[in-house]
Amino acid sequence: MQILQGIAVSPGVAIGEALVMDNEGFRIPRRIIARDAVDDELARLTQAIDAAGREIERNRDSVSRQLGSQYGAIFSAHLQMLRDEQLRNEIEDLVRQRHYSPEYAVSRTLRRYAKVFQSLENSHMAERATDVFDIEKRLQRHLLGHRREELTHLTSAVLVLAHNLTPSETATLDRTFVKGFVTEVGGPGSHTAIVAEGMEIPAIVGTGPFLTDVSGGDLVIIDADHGQVILEPDEETIARYRHEAEVHRTLALKLESMRDLPAETLDGQRVRIYGNIEFPHEVSHCTDRGADGIGLYRTEFLYLGAKVEPTEEVHFDAYSNVVKHMGDRPVVIRTLDLGADKMSYLPEPEDQRNPVLGLRSIRLSLRNLPLFRIQLRAILRVSVLGDVRIMFPLISTLIELRQAKMVLADVMEDLDEQGIEFNRDLQIGMMVEVPAAVMMIDRFVEEVDFVSLGTNDLIQYTLAVDRGNKDVAGLYNSVDPAVLRMIDMTIQATGAAQTPLTLCGQMSGNPTYTMLLLGMGFRRLSVTPGAIPEIKKICRSVAIEQCESISRHVMTMENARETRVYLKEELKKTVPELAT
Ligand code: PEP
Ligand code: MG
After folding, report:
1. With a threshold of 0.90, does the pTM exceed it?
2. How far is C-alpha 490 from the chain's CA centre?
3. Any idea where the domains of the chain sit in the sequence?
4. pLDDT digits (tens, 9 = 90+) for 177-214
5. Which of 24, 256, 316, 515 gets the most CB atoms within 10 Å of its CB?
6. Hey, which of 457, 510, 526 would you mutate to test ligand 1's pocket, going by the most ligand atoms within 8 Å of its Cβ?
7. Pocket of ligand 1 (CB under 6 A)
8. What DSSP character marks residue 431?
């Protein structure tokens, strides 16, 4: 049994068969083959070696023709290694004697060779390891013949173990069969993490390398309540986790019964709990749990899986589904927040050294006015179907907000001229997720109808910690005192101006922080739909006075780790069944 620690990004426990994707996106299949399949598997290996050999010959000839034979010689060396008899015998022996699959045998053998080269003092020789990996990749490609697309053609339940998954790859995972996932890289605030929460499957990121220790079909446990991945679990551990999964189900059923009860504190303060969604179908996840509305609709996900630009009608259909489903409850549609880790078919900006500081979000929309206008038209058109509100992301200067509002006014004028109906008084809001916006918040509130606090980015930009990087994940803290002061400034300024304020970062859906947030003054939380029942349960179990005393104490603390321990203890005292 081997236990790995990672960063839990979507809670729950899952037990099942592993589907392993290596860092090239190849699926690593089952390690062992049936005894009577050896001959067929050896034939498959021969075909793959032959095909890889022909491919290398073609590359060698083409490079020699264009650049001269000394460059073609690089490929001759690859060819020599690929056709080396000793190497081939080693691979075949593993298939014949240990019944390893050819893919696994190739991987085992070539990685052993690569390790020997890597250990050499001579750096020139050490570089040969790269050639060995290159040959391995080529052989695997011929053996497997298919890549990630396979993830969308599953036929049985699996837990996906991958080096990395982009937000759009995660979004296309087949929810019927994918019961959880683990990635070697990735940080706590990445959009991959957010999509996992939306899918409501247990997920862990940032474990560091482990894929070589596991093969397809192995039984694996994902304990995303504690950030642990358990490889080769023993019987006792499996039994314990089966019990835990059952406890989860029972608690979820119990919480479900609160659906139609208001989120009202013991002393009668009403809290509004909205849902965050990425896709229109998630709207039912919100209404099923009694959400007061949609507090954040991340519309950029419409672009992530798309091969061509979504038309105005595509936008309109998606938004109208959501708005109609919500009836008279508010729907906050956020304009595109593309860029950084949410890249689409749009050409990548040339300078990508610091994508989160680059052409992202509202900046990208303001540089692509035709694209922005299409979206604004669609939002305005659905504004007559319900209580639609529009929100601009990543605003960092007053000028930027004014520009966005000007484009909106311009699009309104166009619709007017064309006689197309829309709600002229639709509420306009902004996200506060850049420290500059917090510092200028007293000015911003004069120009918007509402504000939504995006802690995912606010933490990243305040603490200078990439939200998607596992190596600095320990520094990414929602309750860092600097972050809490930023939040407090926003609460004070919006309160003074009587501008409604919602918290929509992931922190709002984490039960550990609910009492603190209520104590600080929040009465509107927009959370991942799966978290609605738990957050509601806490609201109904506490009095504001108690929360205020907690927040007063927290504001005197200097250390995020101690703050979190303190908040967990307070939660345990008040709602023990939700404390982890
Ligand atoms: C945020 O930054 O907190 C937020 C809600 O937006 P996103 O996670 O989509 O960047
Ligand atoms: Mg954000």
Report:
1. no
2. 26
3. 2-25+149-250, 28-144, 257-578
4. 999 999 999 999 888 888 898 889 999 999 998 887 78
5. 515
6. 457
7. 194, 296, 298, 337, 433, 454-457, 504-505
8. E
